[in-house]
């Protein structure tokens, strides 16, 4: 029953750190002002599988599916052998977690994967071979030219033609969380004035490294407050009251993999190999939402008032930009919310005229940065 | 005895959060590899005053003066009426805190101010009138064209001619902490390749808002871990496990004052009105050291290996840049240290050739960002 213990603890972390501070989860809107696709359960609805269901994103897949009334006729809860046999309650029904095997995808229309790159590499093609459409949250296939990399609000056209019910499997990749959150805000501006260069610095939450990292941050914080040495199992250094360069491996060009995802995925999603991007990715002691400081250089002029209007009207985006009250987006405020929040929208004083803007973006890493985006992709398959 | 309680608590915070994690303070080197000016006590040494001695920076003034064997024949401990009468032990002697009055500067050669801008504006000119040389840590006089704004390693020439013993008072301004930490790393590169544009995103510690803010971060963190609502006295929102746009007032151009300090002070310190700077300043739940992600655009090519060499040889700078071990500067590592640490030194892939670099800088906000820099300025007066 270890997974239950873990999930319960995870839940408690949420209750303590997030829900109790922003109101009880049930009463708290998941979104600021969103347009949801509401569907009732249908007999002809697709059969689903959630791969990596016991992880932080896996659990959020279930939460989002439920919140959005995603239609399904059946749902398989898949995880590693270690988690098989555990019980999960979903929409009032008890499910037993099944071991992920090649046979598990028999009859599955849509499989939501979030079990790490190696699992996706091994089982993604198997699922496709069985006719499943795989929405993969790992980085395994993101840069594969045959696999669409999709943010539904940004480039839905990339997956046109892929539909449930055609009897044909397919792979669709969910972008990296930092890329999704950045491009939710940058794309509407890009569509108006064309971004030529983007300098991004991130403030990334523990959740990006999984539920165990969130737990370690809580544990370390308690230890440090008690004057004890911090337990460092997930990261190789103290995280509580500290920050550090993202833990992704550093490549030969000095960028870490997380940073190069922002560089390369932006080009693929915007279908524009000319856009210049640099990024510095930093892990900060925040629980589950990322923040990003984004400096934009445009081809065409775009003044800050127009930019605010564009962002206010952008799908999945909310503008929080009250200069008098010094109220701007924070990770805590967007935690457990669907929309990405943008603020600090201002003309960049280091660029000439109106060709540059600075913005600050926050988005829930587990939700829009992972599970929600994947479920939105799945909604487009129907 | 309220101040003693506060200082004791402050000390406890340090012990718990910093010292116990990086070794006891006595055993911990204050610097990575620094060149200190060591002076023995002299009869002819200057008389000192510390204004705002009970604050976080005031306390650090004393610590730095002691660590660096700063010569003095006498030292006045000055603070508000509220703190007057309290006792401070310094270098084995008991001092009574005196109320800050115009007469307090009689016979004072060097006055180190850190009591906020309004105190500096009121008492700085009075002290100068009495013949004191004021090293002011507030923003009151930084942009005054008659007042040098000095980082000793960067622009010592700006204060040439100001010396103790000439019987003439003077004002010297200590730059903003974020500016000092940024320019400690950027200047050596600027001297080689000329920075034309700089995009800075900061990760600023609680200490920049004073000892009470550090205490509130600890208190809030305890409260949040216990599931209680956080006490928000210093900031208007939750700080524990969160981050937010810097609390400085936002100006009409959308930048906050902290950001414009980086823009304007850089120009003054570099004596170069053409350098283009933009900054986004963010408060993160870290105790006492700032981090900054700095994107640099140069006039002349500067490759990353040369940049590393330059930084390794720069005074007051230490390079921490181990890509294989993913080891780079962290705020915790530089806490209570003199040197500014630089890492993540890499060619910016968004710029052509070798005309761009990304770097990540960490520095102790209270020490090099405030007290140490001021004491170094004072050393140059002797």
Automatic annotation (TrEMBL), chains A, B:
<feature type="domain" description="Semialdehyde dehydrogenase NAD-binding">
    <location>
        <begin position="47"/>
        <end position="162"/>
    </location>
</feature>
<dbReference type="GO" id="GO:0019877">
    <property type="term" value="P:diaminopimelate biosynthetic process"/>
</dbReference>
<comment type="subunit">
    <text>Homodimer.</text>
</comment>
<dbReference type="GO" id="GO:0009086">
    <property type="term" value="P:methionine biosynthetic process"/>
</dbReference>
<protein>
    <recommendedName>
        <fullName>aspartate-semialdehyde dehydrogenase</fullName>
        <ecNumber>1.2.1.11</ecNumber>
    </recommendedName>
</protein>
<dbReference type="InterPro" id="IPR012080">
    <property type="entry name" value="Asp_semialdehyde_DH"/>
</dbReference>
<keyword id="KW-0486">Methionine biosynthesis</keyword>
<feature type="active site" description="Acyl-thioester intermediate">
    <location>
        <position position="177"/>
    </location>
</feature>
<dbReference type="GO" id="GO:0009088">
    <property type="term" value="P:threonine biosynthetic process"/>
</dbReference>
<comment type="pathway">
    <text>Amino-acid biosynthesis; L-methionine biosynthesis via de novo pathway; L-homoserine from L-aspartate: step 2/3.</text>
</comment>
<dbReference type="GO" id="GO:0050661">
    <property type="term" value="F:NADP binding"/>
</dbReference>
<keyword id="KW-0521">NADP</keyword>
<dbReference type="InterPro" id="IPR012280">
    <property type="entry name" value="Semialdhyde_DH_dimer_dom"/>
</dbReference>
<dbReference type="GO" id="GO:0009097">
    <property type="term" value="P:isoleucine biosynthetic process"/>
</dbReference>
<dbReference type="GO" id="GO:0004073">
    <property type="term" value="F:aspartate-semialdehyde dehydrogenase activity"/>
</dbReference>
<keyword id="KW-0457">Lysine biosynthesis</keyword>
<comment type="pathway">
    <text>Amino-acid biosynthesis; L-threonine biosynthesis; L-threonine from L-aspartate: step 2/5.</text>
</comment>
<dbReference type="GO" id="GO:0046983">
    <property type="term" value="F:protein dimerization activity"/>
</dbReference>
<dbReference type="Pfam" id="PF02774">
    <property type="entry name" value="Semialdhyde_dhC"/>
</dbReference>
<comment type="similarity">
    <text>Belongs to the aspartate-semialdehyde dehydrogenase family.</text>
</comment>
<dbReference type="GO" id="GO:0009089">
    <property type="term" value="P:lysine biosynthetic process via diaminopimelate"/>
</dbReference>
<keyword id="KW-0791">Threonine biosynthesis</keyword>
<dbReference type="GO" id="GO:0051287">
    <property type="term" value="F:NAD binding"/>
</dbReference>
<keyword id="KW-0560">Oxidoreductase</keyword>
<feature type="active site" description="Proton acceptor">
    <location>
        <position position="290"/>
    </location>
</feature>
<dbReference type="InterPro" id="IPR000534">
    <property type="entry name" value="Semialdehyde_DH_NAD-bd"/>
</dbReference>
<keyword id="KW-0220">Diaminopimelate biosynthesis</keyword>
<dbReference type="InterPro" id="IPR005986">
    <property type="entry name" value="Asp_semialdehyde_DH_beta"/>
</dbReference>
<dbReference type="InterPro" id="IPR036291">
    <property type="entry name" value="NAD(P)-bd_dom_sf"/>
</dbReference>
<dbReference type="Pfam" id="PF01118">
    <property type="entry name" value="Semialdhyde_dh"/>
</dbReference>
<keyword id="KW-0028">Amino-acid biosynthesis</keyword>
